[in-house]
Specification:
single chain, Rossmann fold, 2 domains, two-stranded antiparallel sheet, binds magnesium ion, HAD_sf, HAD-like_hydrolase_sf, Putative phosphatase, phosphoglycolate phosphatase activity, HAD-like_sf
């Protein structure tokens, strides 16, 4: 996998005078609410397949073997997101929306093609608890390193638009634009490994560190690298599902995680 890290903190690329404690954090889910983008992508994917089917039929080359046309019934956002949070397969979500199985591949190709388009990225919004949490980490002299399967350029654009750049020290992202949607555990592990190694090289403190995230990729990566893991259920996975992964802790949002995670080594040392 091709990874890329971007130093955006003021002193992040030089040897630190005072080593800082590092916390690793995912981007989509803990900081960004991607639910509307994913839902809009799903709706546009269905619409594109419907239009393609109509066009093919009009041209005398119908996509469906049977006579009747499509009868799509898009799910509500609440229904769609509940299914995503409980890891219902994309195929099942599509079929429950009235999409015939033979049109699933074109639908998914369309979804992957457009999910990172700027017209859809604009639906991304800041999680309500994120701003307070990022300020809290900064106040407590924590070095916050983002480890994300998003492209670093997308991450920086969002952070800049929200005025959050001064609160983030480093971004480790994937150069593959499709990595975030695929959300592969091995990609996340590799990125986290590189991030930990680089922070150690810079002299920062990664022992007693945490990986905070909202999916199995974050929890598994953190566990494999020997970190404590904080699973947040404000993202794309439900609390019930996250508990099956046995993270160190499950929290509702980044703020409650920050309050707990920052004080934990102090409690251990006391
Ligand atoms: Mg995430």
């Amino acid at each position: 996998m091709t990874a890329c890290n971007v130093s955006i903190g003021q002193f992040s690329s030089v040897q630190p005078a005072t080593p800082k404690r590092v916390i690793f954090c995912d981007f989509d889910g803990p900081i960004v609410d991607v639910s509307e983008r994913y839902y809009q992508t799903y709706l546009k994917g269905l619409l594109a397949v419907e239009l393609a089917a109509e066009l093919a039929t009009a041209q005398g080359q119908p996509l469906l073997a049977r006579e009747q046309g499509l009868n799509l019934k898009p799910l509500s956002k609440a229904q769609f997101w509940r299914m995503k949070q409980n890891r219902v397969a994309d195929l099942e979500i599509a079929m429950r929306s009235g999409l015939p199985a033979e049109l699933f591949d074109p639908f998914m190709q369309q979804v992957k093609r457009i999910v990172n388009h700027p017209n859809l990225l604009r639906w991304d919004s800041l999680q309500p608890a994120a701003l307070g949490a990022l300020h809290y980490f900064k106040q407590r002299n924590i070095r916050l390193v983002l480890v994300t399967l998003r492209h670093p350029r997308q991450v920086q654009a969002f952070l800049r638009s929200q005025g959050l750049e001064p609160l983030i020290d480093e971004v480790f992202g994937a150069l593959d634009m499709n990595a975030a949607h695929a959300n592969r555990v091995d990609h996340k592990c590799e990125l986290l490994m590189q991030a930990i190694a680089q922070q150690k090289d810079l002299g920062h403190l990664t022992q007693n560190s945490w990986m905070i995230g909202d999916t199995e990729a974050d929890v598994r990566a953190g566990q494999l690298m020997g970190l404590s893991t904080a699973a947040l259920c404000c993202g794309v996975r439900s609390k019930t599902y996250l508990q099956t992964l046995s993270p160190s802790k499950v929290y509702g949002c980044l703020m409650t995680a920050a309050l707990d995670v920052v004080k934990m080594p102090l409690l251990q040392a006391a």
